[in-house]
Write a structure and sequence with these properties.
By secondary structure, the protein is mostly helical. It has 17 helices and no strands.
């Protein structure tokens, strides 16, 4: 059966998230570009510190995505007053989780990373980055709670506005704090971390102000913390916990990928951070459409229109694939100019060029893989998406470790693991969705 959800409707949900991703990735882009001017050590340490932070923050993001799925389902069912309590419990849980995450970032990283990073200089830089970055976890987790509310309601424009605020603040404070401009202290890598914390605080302030100015709290029964329901929290966790674990494992394994690359040398790590920044740009349309997939699949199921789901997914893939091709084409055509944004070192540019073609292919595979994968979690069957993620990450990890350790592959070959990841993720998810086993799922 063809879906009644039009391309226009999909685009309406996805494009604010895509624009938000553009702004969000200006943070990553700016940090990497500025740190590339500081030196290879700062560039490598920024990569490891940034990914370690992302791995921890994925715990909060995973919980918020689970909440988003439930909110979208309640919207489809027309149960608006049940949306607020989901958001309320999400806020409470994420605040508690933020305390735990802060201690991991600020104190646990010293012990965890000491046995994995070979270069003393890179280790010291990574720890310095995380010491300054850790407080931002409180702002980031609350931002995820707001995001789950708005994306679940398909009111995604505010996500764009907020990430523009985030990116703008980060660029300004990167410029001031990394190099010590306009009388600010010259902090280097610590300045990049502190700038991101300040930017997250600005984003939270914008979410708070916008919500109080535009949203009817009574309509959704929003932000009423008088009653904490253990039963409701458990129901949210049933959906969210697999998403939390899945997101954490995904970024943790990617962190391990960079640890493997670090063993190839500081230059390989530095160029990989540049490639990471470019790769993330290539993924911008994918994240937007993947988030839309989560929401729209859950919304259709809430309307009892399960037979339209597969048709919806293929429509989203068509749009996503077209968007990725545009990004890939622009970056490959202007690849020299893109590299020069980050570095003028001809050696880094030479090493990075073949890797850029590898990640271009990987991005194309992700446009299929991520959409089908997010459709699985959108059904509410998050334990299945977790199982798929674990299976694919296991293969990815063994592949990466083997080709670097036993076959002495260079850094370009190591990056082919991303092509493998996208291909397997999409294939396993497609098989599950075609099985129709997800059609009997009910979210309580």
């Amino acid at each position: 059966m063809k879906t009644t959800v039009t391309y226009s409707r999909i685009w309406t949900v996805a494009y604010p998230i895509i624009l938000g991703s553009v702004a969000q990735n200006l943070v990553n882009f700016t940090d990497t570009a500025f740190l590339g001017r500081v030196g290879e050590i700062a560039l490598g340490a920024g990569a490891l510190g940034g990914i370690f932070y992302l791995a921890v923050i994925m715990l909060g993001m995973g919980f918020s995505v689970g909440s988003q799925i439930i909110i979208a389902r309640r919207l489809g069912e027309g149960k608006l007053k049940e949306i607020g309590p989901v958001v309320n419990h999400t806020v409470l849980f994420l605040l508690g989780m933020a305390v735990f995450a802060f201690f991991i970032l600020h104190f646990g990283s010293v012990v965890i990373l000491k046995n994995f990073i070979q270069s003393v200089a890179v280790y010291d830089g990574t720890i310095l980055f995380l010491q300054y970055r850790a407080p931002g976890i409180f702002f980031a987790f609350l931002n995820y709670a707001y995001q789950s509310f708005y994306v679940g309601l398909t009111k995604t424009k505010v996500v764009t506005y907020t990430t523009l605020v985030l990116a703008g603040a980060n660029i300004v404070f990167d410029y001031l704090l990394i190099f010590g401009n306009f009388g600010f202290p010259e902090m280097g890598i610590a300045g990049a971390a502190l700038a991101s914390v300040i930017a997250e605080a600005f984003a939270l302030a914008f979410y708070f102000t916008y919500t109080h100015a535009t949203i009817s709290f009574k309509k959704y029964n929003l932000f009423r913390f008088k009653i904490v329901s253990v039963h409701r929290m458990i129901n949210i966790l049933k959906i969210s916990f697999p998403m939390m674990l899945q997101s954490f494992l995904s970024l943790s394994v990617w962190f391990m990928f960079f640890l493997f690359v670090e063993k190839l040398g500081e230059t390989s790590l530095a160029v990989s951070n540049i490639i990471r920044s470019i790769f993330v740009v290539l993924l911008i349309p994918i994240w937007g459409f993947a988030t839309a997939t989560n929401t729209l699949v859950s919304y259709l199921i809430g309307l009892k229109r399960q037979d339209e789901v597969l048709s919806l997914i293929f429509k989203i893939i068509n749009l996503c694939f077209a968007g990725v091709l545009v990004f890939v084409g622009v970056i490959l055509v202007f690849r020299k100019a893109v590299f020069q944004i980050y570095t003028n070192d001809p050696n880094l540019i030479e090493i990075g060029t073949p890797i850029l073609f590898v990640v271009a292919v990987a991005a194309i595979m992700f446009s299929f893989g991520f959409i089908f994968f997010n459709s699985v979690s959108g059904t509410g069957k998050t334990n299945v998406s977790l199982a798929i993620e674990i299976a694919v990450l296991s293969i990815y990890l063994v592949f990466t470790y083997s080709i670097i350790t036993f076959f002495n592959a260079d850094v370009a070959v190591a990056w082919t693991a991303e092509i493998l990841y996208g291909t397997l993720l999409g294939s396993f998810s497609f098989i599950y969705m075609k099985s129709n086993r997800w059609k009997t799922i009910v979210l309580k």
